[in-house]
Protein 1
Amino acid sequence: MDGNLVANEIRRKIEREVESLHVKGIKPCLATILVGNDQASATYVKNKHIAAAKLGISTRDYKLDESTPETELLRLVQDLNTDEDIHGILVQIPLPPKIDQQHVVNSINRLKDVDGLNPFNLGLLFSSEAKLKPCTPSGILEIIDHYGIDLRGMDVVIINRSNLVGKPLAMLLLQRDATVTICHSKSKNLSKLSRNADCIITAIGNRDKFVLTGSMVKKNSIIIDVGISRRQGRIIGDVDFESVKKAASYITPVPGGVGPMTITMLLKNTITAAKLIKKEQD
């Protein structure tokens, strides 16, 4: 399953929506906040700005020192909450240990929460009414839809229980009438569960601790790899691609699978946020 292909199709639609909003005098703008000097996070933020610019979405880039106190970060978020020119706010995660990450996420205006992680938006997700949904889970469903996969009645195993991926993804899959099992580090008989699954979505991101191998999947299953690890200058996923692809009917590569979709869904959420804000102002 080609994530770049799906992402490019969605980005063309986003570009048309941006042009339509510009005609109405609305100029979508995404603000990003990066705290500290983590190179991986800096690269992610840079890529988000590049992607936004290509689609006509303006951006603001805020870089704060590692020693920035939480109160100062919260003041910046509040300023952006009330700035009428800003439609989306993204605080790059992870934050330094001394900052309460959830406290910061909670402080983001629910209409500008383009990561979809504010408790208000997560609550709407549980009631199937969310407009701003977490980016990676949303991107996974876009890939599934592109390839015409009907999830109804499927046994889906998610190997991840984070607020960022596993939990919101489980809700979205339940809304598609899938039967969902969430596995994690304390799960027993993981291989047995995965071998019975019609679809496996793995998002561990640590090949030293976990690898999904061919012996752990059943024939004709669907494999979606969200994990990212770095080995000898290469980016690899959770899946032993060569052994698993022999059994799978569909499989996402790393890179080029879910990764491009995450940024794409962030940009899509920015457009959605701009529309929601305009609707509330009207």
Protein 2
Amino acid sequence: MAERRYLYTPLTDDVVVSLRAGDRVYLSGTVLTARDAAHKRLVEILEKGEELPVDLRGQVIYYCGPTPPPPGKVIGSCGPTTSSRMDIYTPKLLSVGVKGMIGKGKRSEDVKDGLIKYKALYFGALGGAGASISKCVLKARVLAFEDLGPEAIYILEVKDMPLFVINDTYGGDLYVEGTSKYRI
């Protein structure tokens, strides 16, 4: 069984290098949401040499576009989106300090190389579990790019968000290693 760890943001190099593909984690602290449009805008700002609206050092980005909160709730459903759509932008964001990403699906070789180079992790969240994941969110507010609606950057305060380490800083890949156990 995979090791179960409790993590707190912001992530440090010491924490990142202590984890391996397959580890089960429960993440608490602040997490930023960002999808395609927000990633594109962040990279455009960096390419212009301008200051980002948020400090990304040590941050975890959740590939999610939360739905509006129902009455009495902090947030609506907030399940993971397909991570590969962010792959074109990810190495640049890793270079400015992002230490973790949460999503679903495989990552490109460029992203996996960036995780090794910049000491970062890719976490998997269960697709289709957005309503369940929303129960881990204690607070939510728009932080940047409000004009993007659900694709704006939100800051979420989470407690014990259940995740798996998919790709680690050593080149480990749970999707490759996990399926190899069942090959004949």
